[in-house]
Amino acid sequence: MNTKISKIALSTTLAMVVAGCGQKASQSAAPEEAKVKAPVAADETSRNLDIWPKLDIAVKQDDAIEKRVSDILATMTLEQKVAQMIQPEIRDITIEDMRKYGFGSYLNGGGAFPNNNKQSTPQDWIKLAEDMYQASIDDSVDGSNIPTMWGTDAVHGHNNVVGATLFPHNIGLGAANNSDLIEKIAAITATEVMVTGIDWVFAPTVAVVRDDRWGRTYEGYSEDPDIVRDYSAAIVKGLQGHADGDFLSDKRVISTVKHFIGDGGTEKGDDQGDNIASEQELFDIHAQGYVGGLSAGSQSVMASFNSWHGEKNHGSKYLLTDVLKTQMGFDGFVVGDWNGHGQVKGCTNESCAQAVNAGLDIFMVPTAAWKPLYENTIAQVNSGEIAMSRIDDAVARILRVKIRAGLFEKPSPAKRPFSGKTELIGAKEHRDVARQAVRESLVLLKNKGNILPLSPKQHILMAGDGADNIGKQSGGWTITWQGTNNTNDDFPGGTSIYDGINEQVSEAGGKVTLSADGSFSEKPDVAIVVFGEDPYAEGHGDRDNLDYQRGEKSDLALLTSLQQQGIPVVAVFISGRPMWVNAELNASDAFVAAWLPGSEGDGVAEVILANADGSVQNDFVGKLSFSWPKAPDQTTVNRHDAEYSPLLPYGFGLQYGDENVLADDLEDTVKVDLSKAAELKLFTGQMHKPWLMTLMSGEELLSITSNTHQVGALSYRTIDKVVQEDARKLSFDGSENAGVRISSFGSFREDLRSQLEVSAVLSFEANVMQRPSGKVMLSMLCEGEGEPECAGRIDITEQINELAPNSWEKITVDLQCFKQAGMSFADLHTPFELTTDGTMELGLSEIKLVPNAVASATLSCQ
Q: Is 131 in the active site?
């Protein structure tokens, strides 16, 4: 076995999983149908509604509510109806906009705050909620008094609000596998959300993750649909209340099961990519969260960015209407994701009749696009492109949910029972539950010589950049969207992992030395090293394999250094997914998968430290809800696969006293198959997804929408090199720095470290029509936390001047040159930027990354 785990050890591991190993998940195996099948085409002939069940939904239709919906609808104008279907973002509308248009709902996106202030207080949030509500029921301008709803992404607690209780991200909660705990967490989240006057939460996420390269892996509870189904029901009940109890009472919020459907199963784990599962597999694996959450009565569903067999879900009538609404019987509303309608074929952010006709009820439309979208939708109804019956159905669904939620009768946001009770934000009893969740989410992967639990009477060195870093341990969707640019001061009431260790050790008479780089003046008895992934969210976290710190390995160097000094090492690994850490496992005596524990880092100390008398405080109970890979490219290893050979299987997790399984000689070398390396095309007459071309001059940026453009010092036009319009001509007048940039869609980070491993070059063809009068800079840009600029910039003026004039010639630049200039290929969002501050005329064509070409590069840095 190339992982070098003995057959005996692996047999022991598997036996432990089969026996349950204290794992609740083992009591409910995934359905046999969840086994991986070869995908089939999703054309009309393969569609089979019989695959989808008629759900027994706990919340039944009520005749009185339906009559009230009809009565309200009968009084509404088309403009008022369409306004109910528009959901703008708080940064893009004013109170007066709400008064004039009467939007049915609005949201705050990740990193959006009242007054644009990250440190906004709960009172600031309440004031905005109250002002928006009062404007919505003011009928003096728009003639409508229908109350609006505020929706927010409270995905691991009320994570946009400073001081809120932050729970472990979903991947950690999946390892805990405790539905009762999950319901408590959801109820606490609802309470803290309601303190700020908000009505509606965009949770739970019920993605069943099948490829751990996906940047949203940590938003999934498990690779197994059973946990996801059960958790979905529990969270909906915790947020909304039980259908036969306090359903949507004044202590509950509206929930959203998301993202419909298949976002966890895209090809290569590509965020917003294509899911090519068969329809049976789409139901068996990816729909189980909807079976659980909708049956429990969730009132809204969010459409997904992904496609199913090439068709964007936001525009799929089959999925949104035929499957979800008609067959499964969902009578709430479908809300879009962040301008997701704009990705539907034939649509833009400002116009998308296709999404409405497909069954989308609410457009989530941040930015100023909301106004033309509103106007265009009205025009499309008037022209017959959208049937009035479809508008009436959408608005009826919105009104139905608002009536069920009591929004017409409840007091205004500032006067509701929890509003303004700021003592509930981060309350001790809430943090106690979060700490329990941390304890139950930890998974012990290795415990050589039963080194854990540690005596708190020892001298303990706390090392690693995650030891005293609440932001890192909380991950993405934490105050800011990406979870970056936070300090411990942004988490009042929270505790780092160091805080928890230090408190207990100090009370027991031991000693803790905090040293991120592992240096010390007095040799410790043991080292706890806390390290792992830096925060990210959505596509910014997409990776092309699971090798941790690929090409860098600074954390491995720290672990190795401590061991070489004779210091036992306990590794606490912070991550949003299982990763290939064989080398780090080898360099650790104990290894704990801590996932992303949130604001209550002291929960870690309550498991890995013994009591002062040596007895166990809390045993490990967490079990892997994701299989752990044995190789960096083993990214799609999932329970019930036909061929299943992970390093550690689903359900694995040691407890104190268990025999250690992992030896110190796991295979830790990476083998790169250069023969499989292929060109990465950026521009070859047309742009290749996910890359977009932008023009820039000074501070001005311009997206390309025509074959000619003028922006500041730069003129742009398409030209012919071999065939029609297969090249671009750039003319610079020298009045300011200007250029062209190729970036990923939304400037998402892309992991292109593989291009370094295959000795790739950045290659482009240039035609010098007028030589440059100033410097020509070729750059790659990346995203680095806390840095003013993360980039590699190279002066290629000499190389441009050496080209023969008025002829097409190739320039190739070794990617190592960009790395040496400061480029991080793990976080790349712009692989090509060419700028000059002088005059120049230049043709560009055939821009790509070419493997195995360093030997003949125009500019090499090997």
A: no
